[in-house]
Every structure is written in C-alpha cells, then in structure tokens.
Amino acid sequence: MALLGVAVVLTFYALLMYVDFFRQVFPGQNVEYTFSTVYKVANFATGLIVVCIGSSIPYPAKIVPALILQAASLASFVFLTSVDAVAIACGVAGTAHAFSHGSIAGLCGALPERYMQSFVVGIGVSGLVASISKMLTKIAFADHRTAAYVWTAELLSFYLLTLCLYVCQVDTHPDVVRVKTKGRDGSTADDQPLIISTHTRIAPLEDEKPASALMAPLVTLARVWPWLMVMVANWLITFLILPGIASELESSVRFFQSSGWFHVLLFWDFLLFDVLGRYLPKLPGFRGI
C-alpha cells in the first residue's frame, strides 16, 4: 500500500517540479501557478463526486484507469506546447488523482489498520521520491529538456511497476478479496468481522443511532473537523510555497531569505515533517487516539 500511496500523489509533486521545464517552454508566463490551481480545483471537485458515487464502482475499475490517466498526463506535460493543452492535462491528472486516492483510501479503510498506515506514509514519501529523483536526473543531465524527458521516463516506469503490483499482488490478496466479496454480496460487518485488531476498541455511544446514507458524511464531519482544518492548512502551504520554488535558484543575493534555495529548504522541511507526522500513528503510544 505504501507504493500505491506514492503513486496517487506523485503527479502533483511532479507537476510542481516541472517548473524549470515550463519556464523554458513558456518563458515569462508563470504558468506553474495556473497549472497547480487547475489541478487542485479538478482534484477537489472530483473528490466530492467520488465520495457520492465511488462505492458503487468496483475498486479495479476505479484504480487501474485512474493510475493510467495519471501516467498519461505526466507524459503529456513534456510534449504539449500550448498552455491551454497543458492546463487540460493538469485537470485530467487532478481528476484521476481524486479517483485513485479516494478509491485506495476507501479500500484501506475496510482493511486492517496497517494498510491505511502504510498508504498514508507512502503519500508522505511521494514528495521525497519525486524531488530526489528529479535532483539526481538534473545532476546527470544539464539540459532542461533532456532532464525532463528522462525524468518523465523514470516516473512512467514507476507507474508501470505500481500497476503491475496492484493487479498481480494487491487486488488478489486475500484481505482485499474479502472486502470485494462483502461489497458484492451485501453482507454486513456483523456476519464476519473483517478487521481483527488487538487494540482496544472504542465503544459507540449508547444513545447513538445509525446515520442515514445522506447524514453519515455530516456526522463524520462533526467528529473530524479539527483534523480537516489541519488538512486545509496543509493545502494552503502547498498553494503558497510549493509552486515555483525552484524556478529561480539565485544564491548570490544578500539575504538568504530572498534566495531560491531558502524556498527549497522550506520545501524539504515541509516534506520531512509531513512524512514524520504520517508515521506517528504507527507508534504504540499514538495508537487508539
């Protein structure tokens, strides 16, 4: 699941790191902000659709096409020469990201907690994978276009590996097969508990009544809204800091805070603590919170 976590958000981190290539193809237009906005808007809008209708679509029918579309969108970034065309590709990538992310998260939610923990850690590691591979490629190839083509080939190879592992290993795993079988035959969780955990379970409130299908999201929102605010703050950091951070790495300025390298340091700091924060729930002291 960690590998799938890396794959689902890799397109967005890759989009941010194509900034040097976009500056060569579209000089003086600052298109990275436009592309990031289009991606996130499409991602958010599609995410709402996935919440509403996602459960009616089989997992492979959502995950496999979504990962293929994400890979195809990455490939198109280096071949399209129109701002509008690249923006459309960003919208497609954001839409596919919502389907793959939402579907895999939903699948992990029906599995033992170790699956979700691995998936979440993979999401955090994704930015490090993208940035490290990009830097190594830039070191090996000085030309912007050549580096972009080689890096894109590396990312496409990663998506091909992820697809093969999902189809051959994840989708056929006994735990996943049980989840899909329960979804098809309509059995309830009381028939045969799927999640077997040694941790203490939190008993439901005595006066709590089962929520209807329409009210369930609102009930969940009322419980987790503080964590949603943290997620929104995370998105704001993504919007304000990440796009364009590597466009002008000028290190000869007088003040370090004005240097492009300062923003790169912020990026690494953000990614590092993001990964650490995602790993904390795996520690014994944080379980059951």
UniProtKB/TrEMBL annotation:
GO terms for cellular component: plasma membrane. The keyword Transport applies. GO terms for molecular function: nucleoside transmembrane transporter activity. The keyword Protein biosynthesis does not apply. It comes from the Eukaryota. Keywords: Membrane, Transmembrane, Transmembrane helix, Transport. It is a multi-pass membrane protein. The chain crosses the membrane at residues 41-59, 71-95, 115-136, 148-168, 224-249, 261-280. It is found in: Membrane. This is Battenin. It comes from Vitrella brassicaformis (strain CCMP3155).
